[in-house]
Amino acid sequence: MVSVGHMRLGTWNLEGKWSDAHAPLMTDAACDIWLLTEMPTRTTLPGFTIHATRARMAPERAWAAVAVRTALSAKPWKKDPHPASACADVGGLTFCSSVLPWRSCGGGDPWQGDDTASRTKHAVGRLVAALPAASTVWGGDWNHAFDGTEAAGSLAGREEIRAGLTLLGAELLTASQPHRLQGLFSIDHIAVPSGRLLTREARRLSMQSGGRHLSDHDAYVADVELAG
Question: Domains plus CATH for the chain?
Answer without folding.
Answer: 3-227 (3.60.10.10)
